[in-house]
Amino acid sequence: MNARPQTRYDVAIIGGGASGLAAAIAAGRAGASVCVLERDVACGLPILATGNGRCNLSNAQLDSRRYYNAAAAKAVLGRDGASRAEAFFDSLGLMTCEVEGRLYPITRRAETVRDCLLGACERLGVDMRCGVELQGAALDPAIAPDAAGGAWILDTSEPQRPVYVHGDQSDRAALRRARKTLAGAQMAQRQIRARSLVIAVGGSSHDICDMLDIPHVDEEPVLCPIAGTLARPGNSADAGNDPLDALDGLRLEAMLTLKRKGACIAYEEGEVLLRPYGISGIAVFNLSRRCQAGDLIEMDLFPACNNDQLAHTLRAREQHVGPWNGEATWFDGVLPRALASYACECVNGAGDAIAASAALLHRITLRVTGTCEHQQAQVRRGGIPFSSIDADTLAVTSRPNLFACGEALDQDADCGGYNLGWAWLSGLRAGEAASR
């Protein structure tokens, strides 16, 4: 394998995702020479999938209480985090707009965000090296951490010739072709030196933490569907019957209450998608960060009224559709047929079926067995613990000139722009500190 002379930088960033690119821009703007080492065929590709391709940049109110490590979020985001995130994108030339409390690019297209980030890096002279595998990282024992020339030595494996994505980088076929080319490319062993190192590898930081011998919390997927079982009708003849099978694909607007041992743990409101394994949807994803096996999730389909009010409304229907008859068609105009059938099975035989229906529609209950469909998870919990981090600089306290940002840290938050807001602002903080 061919080699080339050692290359020196002020700041080397491991990972070219959202937080890594923000760190690169911050360090470059501070006057540092910067390189980004990215494993994939191009930088910023995960950004293309955010917000269903629209890229929900941030929440308009980055409330630290929405984060797993609220104290760390408060230290990094401060009181004006959303304003600073918006100012960052304005400095890139990206026009934004607010939609229902969330910040989006005005184009509503994630590739616009990526293009602006990459354009800023190019203007700053950031060296974006793609297809790179980091094979070793160590402090140079012969050089003091603050000496000119750099303290970190990085051993890498890189393609001898650059691998390009030919065509639209949001085109999956083009990406598959480029990744196939990368997998078969001849690699060269190279070495890089840098004064400071920033870890921005996303939700898979175990390997680099092991390489650098720094603490790590095992990662687990969050913001994903919830698995569980729906209460079976009391008169169901088939004890093995799962009501969710018949409700598969049904979408409902509901207020969700997460309960544990009778206590209310959290509330979420929004669309719920019923699946054979349980429930999905953004409101469900948020509860997945907090739920445990054995918890109950109560789905209230009519949160604007209480049981008595809903029962009164249902009784008034008898004037128009006839007396209660136990048939699913009686709920036409109120419930989808599949859900109406489930409701009828649950309440038929009750002394007052209409009152029982009102109670059921306020508390359709799922018993949680865990989370599932982890390949859909938007983020992962775990990574470098904040007990090992200086919150002011995001420096790893056990190693000189080593910083971390984004999902590499043990931080996650609700849907709605909170996680990307963290990525941008933690990346900016780490990049600025690394440049110093």
TrEMBL record:
<dbReference type="InterPro" id="IPR057661">
    <property type="entry name" value="RsdA/BaiN/AoA(So)_Rossmann"/>
</dbReference>
<dbReference type="Pfam" id="PF03486">
    <property type="entry name" value="HI0933_like"/>
</dbReference>
<dbReference type="InterPro" id="IPR036188">
    <property type="entry name" value="FAD/NAD-bd_sf"/>
</dbReference>
<protein>
    <recommendedName>
        <fullName>RsdA/BaiN/AoA(So)-like Rossmann fold-like domain-containing protein</fullName>
    </recommendedName>
</protein>
<feature type="domain" description="RsdA/BaiN/AoA(So)-like Rossmann fold-like">
    <location>
        <begin position="10"/>
        <end position="136"/>
    </location>
</feature>
<dbReference type="InterPro" id="IPR023166">
    <property type="entry name" value="BaiN-like_dom_sf"/>
</dbReference>
<dbReference type="InterPro" id="IPR004792">
    <property type="entry name" value="BaiN-like"/>
</dbReference>
<feature type="domain" description="RsdA/BaiN/AoA(So)-like Rossmann fold-like">
    <location>
        <begin position="371"/>
        <end position="432"/>
    </location>
</feature>
